[in-house]
Model the fold of this input.
Amino acid sequence: MMMPSTSSIIAGEESIVPSVASVSGESSLSDMTQTVHFSSGNPRIGETRGVMHLFSDDAVSSSSSSSSDLPIGRNPLVCVLGVPNHMTYADFCQFCGSFIQHILNMRTVRNDGVENRYSILISFDSQESTDTFYQHFRGKQFNSLEEDVCRLLFTLDVQYTGYSGTIDHTQPSAAGPIEQPTCPVCLERLDQDTGGILTTMCNHSFHCSCISNWADSSCPVCRYCQQQPENSVCCVCQTTENLWMCVICGVVGCGRYKGGHARRHWEETEHCYSLELETQRVWDYAGDNYVHRLIQSKTDGKLVELNSHGSLSKDGCGSFECSDSGMTDALLNSKVDMIISEYDELLHAQLENQKQYFEKLLQNVKEETEQKVAEAASKAISQRQQKLQTRFDRCMKEKHFLEDLNENLVKNKDVWITKITEMEEREKKAVQAKDKKIQGLEEQIGKLMAEMTDSEVLESEEVEDGTVLPISTDTTSFSVSGNNAS
Done:
């Protein structure tokens, strides 16, 4: 059984991928493949939708190191799923730089239902290069700082299912010559033999070497960014309908048919120019009319001038009709001078308004700052004064306490002086009495000693006479009692 042919993944041209011979039947292939819906193109201009038939992860062994372990019936076409949106075209080209010379085409697509990520279809010059690329980059981190890894799947078939847009997308007639497209950067032919070709999300094609020098995530031709911003909302009521953005300061507000916050912003700031996000038209609140001169072409997304004297053709480009072709240059020159003069006046007026507006803001900020400084100084002085008053009160309280203590000590001093004087007098009298008593005792001892001496003399005299006379007891007691009485 022969599988259907695969459309080219670059420019929409029909090309044939080598046919796949069924080995185990149609049911076996369907069990090993999975279907992924995708889309590409700028939704504002045209969007191409399609289906990718990818070999599932179960069809490849996790430890496959040789071509025999890879799925049978594979093509030199792989898909890198889940590339982070912050990874630019240049980053991805640098990531797979060692295989750039073997890559024929790369196409960036969006997967349905997947946000903040995109996928890349890569076509190689041979099956051997495809297998080597698959084995080398499968499961490899995009960079060492993130956990995201490269998820590679072999692609069995890619089919385009439809196109929706504002321009005709019919294929050119095969009878006439087909001009080969050129790279918008280097203006050389987009020939697969000379190098790899990368097609961005908006269907613009470049040489890989040329897009590698473009550090931005947007397209160099139409500035369509693969990393779409979040949905805008009104800064006041948070609505997402009928939004207008101030072209001077970028504030987003709703229109007069909603909450009228965009107009209120003009009344507060005098920013009179506002851009309608849905139609990209500019409204002048002061003049109460549209003033935009550039619109987005529906053909290629480029900005073209809206000619007020001409007409707007169906393809979105302005056309100018003049009966005398010799007057064209003069009219264009005069129109350019008029536009320059008008732009200068407009710029001068807007700068003057902005100067007054910001001077007013600065004056308000200055007054608020001075008021805040005065309030802060007054508050600080009040707090300092309160602290000093508290400290003063505490010191006065301590002073009164010390004065009372000193007065009590003075009174106690007088009392103690009186007591000490009385004690000294008592001590003096006690000493005098003691001295008088000691003197009396000394006199008694002297008399006693004299009597004892007299007694000894008498006894000695009696011994010499040979007669010992008994001493009368009464006489001795009388003499002792007489001494005690004395």
In short: The longest helix spans residues 328-465.
